Amino acid sequence: MTNIIFYLAAGVAILSTFMVITRLNAVHALLYLIVSLLSVALIFFILGAPFAAALEVIIYAGAIMILFIFVIMMLNLGPPAIEKERLLLKPGMWLGPGLLAAILLIELVLILTGPGSATKAAEVPPRAVGLTLFGPYVLGVELASILLLAGLVGAFHLARKERND
Amino acid sequence: MLTIPVSHGLLLAGILFLLGFVCVLVRRNIIFILLGLEIMFNAAGLAFVAAGARWGQPDGQIMFLFILTTAAAEVSIGLALVFQLVHRLHTLDIDQADGMKG
User: Could you tell me which residues come within 8 angstroms of residue A132 by beta carbon, excluding any fewer than 6 positions away?
Assistant: First the structure.
């Protein structure tokens, strides 16, 4: 039972990632990439890492993909964008990602309603992750904060338009 | 209990990494290259989580957290570079950015 759910989620991940790299339109590729990230989050959940699964959905499928969508929206200004928007609302565009996401939803419902320990691996609770993160790995947390600060300053500097250009 | 062998999780991570790598090599649109990088980051994180789940230790998830942080910093810099490319060359094709004759 667990095996079927795992391999189905793995198949959805591979199929949607393949669709990402073969799309021509960036927004189509982003939709498939979100489905791929959601299926990887489901695999994390099956593997007994619920904290990593939540972060995958919140940060990867949420924050990072939103960044991509913002950039694509800012690059597509003008009247042609409206025609493009109309094309994006056709059913053929969201049918594929929607079907794959529906498979993932069915699997999630099966896991949540199934018998507790039979559908998941031995779980590493978020409490253990937090204690280890701020125990032996606290130096890594400091380095990650410095990296994020450098990313913030670098993105601000690079994305600024030069005045005399 | 779980009966998924850890090799299958690592195999899935390898396939996803390969797909991201192909995306980086084949596509010439800078947005797709960044997407391929994201796929590769995600596959590396999947390998860490699968290995951590094999031993029941939280270390794999912590490495996934650090990978997540790196990916977030990388994508912010990468998208800022996209802005510069569009601002200076008015294209998304990175082959146009050959001013250094690389």
Answer: B58, B59, B62
Asked whether the beta carbons of residue A155 and residue B79 sit closer than 8 angstroms, the reply is yes
Whole-complex ipTM:
0.90
- CB within 8 Å of B2: residues ≥ 6 apart: A2, A46, A47, A48, A120, A121, A122, B53
Residues 124-153 of A with CB under 8 A from B: 124, 128-129, 131-133, 137, 140, 144, 147-148, 150-152
Query: Within 13 Å, how many C-alpha atoms sit on residue B17's CB side?
Result: 13
Q: Is A68 on the interface with B (CB under 8 A)?
A: yes
When CB atoms are compared, the residue of B2, B35, B83 closest to A29 is: B35
d(CA B52, CA B73): 24
CA distance to A15, B6, B8, per residue, from B51 (Å) = 23, 7, 11
Query: Left, alpha or beta for B56 (phi > 0: left; psi -120 to 50: alpha)?
Result: left
- Which among B41, B37, B73, B68 is positioned nearest to A152, based on CA atoms? B73
pTM: 0.87
Reading chain A (165 residues) residue by residue, the pLDDT tens digits are 678 888 999 999 999 999 998 888 888 889 899 999 999 999 999 888 889 999 999 999 899 999 888 888 888 655 666 666 676 667 777 788 888 888 888 888 888 887 665 555 678 888 988 999 999 999 999 999 999 999 999 999 988 876 555
Beta bridge pairs of residue B93: B29
Place of tokens 């998830």: B61
* Best of B31, B61, B68, B93 to mutate (most A CBs within 10 Å, chain A): B61
